[in-house]
Amino acid sequence: MIKRKLSGNIEFKKVFLEGKRIESKNLIVFLLNSEYKFNRLGLVVKKEIGKAVVRNKIKRRAREAYRQINRKLFQGYDIIILVKKSVVGLEYFELYSELENLFIKKNFFFCQEKITFLTDEIKIKENKKRSSRAYGRAN
């Protein structure tokens, strides 16, 4: 049975050595073509980031963000997401947005226009906060 995740040292090393690297402030993504018709994910969260509870929380958030984005990605790749230490303070939506922007930067989406529903919700909330502040000052 073929697993939809990368497992084993050999698979990770192959993607690290032969794959393309995309980097941002909090994440590094490695991409490599594979023989499968679906994407396989590998997550790397180093121990220097924090205790097990913190690392597991980050892994859950990164896995969920990837799951949301994977539907819009080209298929047939091995993908490794390496999390940097600065991701500890990020909210889920910020992590999602950053991961999505990395894939957009690499033109890795089926369609080239940015499809976001979560980041739009954040912008709407921010605009509501700003407008309520403005009304508060006017009174």
User: What is the count of helical runs?
Assistant: 4
Biggest beta sheet attributes: 4 strands, mixed
The count of DSSP E runs of length 2 or more, i.e. the number of strands, is 4
**How big a fraction of the residues is strand?**
15-25%
Summarize the entry for a quick read.
The chain has 139 residues and is an alpha+beta fold.
Question: Features of this protein?
Answer:
4-stranded mixed beta sheet; alpha+beta; globular; single chain; 139 residues; Ribosomal Protein S5, domain 2
Q: How would you characterize the overall build of this protein?
A:
With about 140 residues, this protein is of the alpha+beta class. The chain has one domain (about 10-110): 2-Layer Sandwich (Ribosomal Protein S5, domain 2), CATH 3.30.230.10. Helix content is about 45%, strand content about 15%. The protein has helices at about 10-20, 50-70, 90-105, 120-139, and strands spanning about 20-25, 25-35, 40-45, 75-85. Strands 1-2-4-3 form a four-stranded mixed sheet, with helices on both faces. The radius of gyration is 17 Å and the shape is globular.
